[in-house]
Specification:
The chain is of the alpha/beta class and 177 residues long. Helices cover 38% and strands 14% of the residues. It has one domain: HAD superfamily/HAD-like (Rossmann fold). Bound molecules: magnesium ion.
Length: 177
């Protein structure tokens, strides 16, 4: 059920994605990453030092990053500038166009491209439709925009159903092992 919404991997935080191992095990060269509640707590301005280190590690390993966010350009542009990575804002995920645009920016093949985000109805759905490798993360904070309230609740129901049935599992600690 809802297979198109199902992430390939489910981790607690983006920092649990071991980039060195990822590069070794999967042939990933480009990462499309969500902003709010994936890289930055929703509504906040502070950058978590661990997440900042994770981004630095990606760059050191020559993994290309692109932020794709449905959030307003001003907020996304600000963080993209701090992290020094390209971005696409006001993106209308899960539609194809922002993901296609990001793949063009990254200049990677779909098979070499990963999507990381905290929402199955935007990040994971969009990534799966284009056959990109999708990773779901737990939102950094529980707060979120009012517009996402309804599907957030629906999302919780689907994810707990999957977990109960063993359709997906949440990785404990780092991934890949
Ligand atoms: Mg998000």
């Amino acid at each position: 059920m809802f297979g198109i919404l199902k992430p390939k991997v489910y981790v607690d935080s983006i920092c649990n994605i071991d980039l060195k191992k990822l590069k070794k095990v999967k042939n990933i060269k480009g990462i499309i990453v969500d902003l709010d509640n994936t890289l930055i707590a929703w509504g906040r301005k502070e950058i978590d030092s661990k997440i900042n280190d994770w981004i630095k590690e990606a760059k050191r390993l020559k993994l290309k990053l692109c932020i794709v966010s449905n959030t307003s350009s001003k907020r996304v542009a600000k963080f993209a500038e701090i992290f020094e990575i390209p971005y696409s804002s006001n993106s209308f995920k899960p539609f194809n166009s922002p993901f296609i645009k990001a793949i063009e920016i990254l200049n990677t093949a779909p098979s070499e491209t990963m999507v990381i985000g905290d929402q199955i109805f935007t990040d994971i759905w969009g990534g799966n439709r284009l056959k990109l490798f999708t990773i779901l993360v737990t939102p950094i904070v529980k707060r979120d925009s009012i517009g996402t309230f309804l599907h957030r609740n629906f999302e919780k129901i689907i994810i707990s159903f999957w977990l109960r049935r063993g359709i997906i599992k949440k990785e404990i600690g780092n991934w890949p092992k």
